[in-house]
Amino acid sequence: METRLSILFYGKKTKLDSKKTLSIYLRVTIDGQRFEVSTQRYVEASKWSVEAGKMKGNTEEARSLNQYQDHLKQKDYSYQKSIVQDGQFFSKETLRLRWYGINEKFHTLIDVFRHHNQQLEALIGKGNSKTTFGKYRTTLDHTVSLFEMVIPKTKY
Fold this sequence. Notes:
This protein is α+β, with helices and mostly antiparallel strands. It has two domains: 5-99, no CATH class; 109-150. It is built from four helices and five strands. The protein has helices spanning 60-85, 92-99, 109-122, 130-150, and strands spanning 5-13, 21-30, 33-44, 48-49, 54-55. The chain has a three-stranded antiparallel beta sheet with strand order 1-2-3. Strands 4-5 form a two-stranded antiparallel sheet. A hairpin with a 2-residue loop joins strand 2 (21-30) and strand 3. Helix 1 crosses helix 2 (92-99) and helix 3 packs antiparallel against helix 4 (130-150). The longest helix is centred in the middle third of the chain and has 26 residues, at 60-85.
């Protein structure tokens, strides 16, 4: 299924000067789910084009803001491409995590099992026996063998 993506910029009245200044926001809609973030840019309401989602005019200020918005739009498309290339499903949540630089670390069953066994090995003689550790190590070996039979050539 193809992901529907739309990107737009809109102005919100600021609390400081609600009649004259707009805070510019970026809204990305992915399959009906919205992700909104402030661009940290402000513009006079009279200079903002609601229809175009850009600043009106050809001044240096207008060109600079509009180029910045184009940069943010390209950043969104770049994130979409990299998320898909990483084998993840592109959604509001995966975009939000990428936008804010949050790297989620996913742990496999084997990772958790190995970590458990390392902790258990450190506790031999301190409440756990070498025999108990050996049984867990054997169980891990059998689990790894099972994974190799079901999912060959997988890194875990």
